[in-house]
């Protein structure tokens, strides 16, 4: 990922917190036919330090797990809020007119060697943890053990898990940091009023990063 210094985020705690908030990622691996991507929820474990391990699962019918080249790295891409930034949001437009449109966005990339998991115990652990994470927000959380054990075992045979010990972790917060303070303030105040949830989230980050 191309990351100019003013957009770079290197703090592991911030990157980990962002991964845990986004939760859903694109899993990219290399095959003999080229790159392949799947889109799946992922778990993050802090070990091994300092950057941790990702895990999740894909459908067994998805041949990505069979086609990925042995020993090749996988890339997990977590995308945060994004928004179009019009030149009209910049107060400096009135001064010189030398402004152009852009796009603000947040992205975290985590790369490392992928290990596919095909044993029932390992798969059950991944499925249970993913379920507990998501169901914990509900008033009446569903548990894997609520379903018949033989049914869960049949469902596990339909998936393949994975682990990615992270070897490279990088973050890009492209949030108008390269603009003058008055332009950042203009972006933060005006796109928040456009009635778009993504734009409102970007506005909050622009304001926070401008401090």
Structural summary, described in words:
By secondary structure, this protein is α+β, with helices and mostly antiparallel strands. It has one domain (5-80, 103-177): Electron Transport, Fmn-binding Protein, Chain A (Pnp Oxidase, Chain A, Roll), CATH 2.30.110.10. The chain is 31% helix and 33% strand. The chain has seven helices and ten strands. It has a six-stranded antiparallel beta sheet. It has a four-stranded antiparallel beta sheet with strand order 4-5-9-8. Helix 6 (181-190) packs antiparallel against helix 7 (197-209).
Portion of residues in helices?
A: 25-40%
- CATH domain fold name: Pnp Oxidase, Chain A
Strand order of the largest sheet: 1-10-7-6-2-3
Distance between the termini: 25 Å
Question: Which structural class is indicated by helix and strand composition?
Answer: alpha+beta
CA radius of gyration: 20 Å
Feature tags:
Pnp Oxidase, Chain A; single chain; 33% strand; 31% helix; 211 residues; four-stranded antiparallel β-sheet
List the helices and strands and how they pair.
Elements: E1 8-9, H1 12-22, E2 24-31, E3 34-41, E4 43-45, E5 53-59, H2 64-67, E6 73-85, H3 93-96, E7 102-113, E8 115-117, H4 120-135, H5 149-156, E9 159-165, E10 168-174, H6 181-190, H7 197-209
Helix pairs in contact: 6-7
Give a concise summary:
With 211 residues, the chain is α+β, with helices and mostly antiparallel strands.
């Amino acid at each position: 990922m191309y990351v100019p210094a003013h957009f770079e985020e290197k703090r592991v705690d911030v990157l980990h917190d962002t991964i845990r908030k986004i939760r859903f990622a694109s899993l990219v691996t290399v095959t003999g036919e080229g790159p392949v991507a799947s889109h799946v929820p992922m778990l993050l474990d802090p070990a091994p330090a300092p950057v941790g391990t990702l895990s999740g699962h894909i459908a067994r019918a998805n041949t990505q797990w069979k086609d990925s080249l042995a020993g090749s790295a996988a890339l997990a891409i977590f995308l945060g809020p994004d928004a179009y930034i019009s030149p009209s949001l910049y107060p400096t437009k009135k001064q010189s007119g030398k402004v152009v449109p852009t796009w603000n966005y947040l992205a975290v990339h985590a790369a490392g060697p992928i290990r596919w998991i095909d044993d029932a115990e390992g798969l059950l652990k991944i499925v249970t943890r993913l379920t507990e994470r998501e169901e914990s927000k509900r008033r009446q959380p569903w548990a894997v053990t609520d379903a018949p054990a033989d049914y869960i075992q049949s469902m596990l045979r339909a998936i393949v898990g994975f682990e990615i010990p992270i070897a490279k972790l990088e973050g890009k917060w492209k949030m108008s940091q390269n603009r003058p303070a008055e332009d950042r303030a203009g972006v933060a105040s005006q796109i928040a009023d456009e009635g778009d949830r993504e734009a409102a989230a970007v506005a909050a980050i622009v304001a926070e990063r401008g401090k």
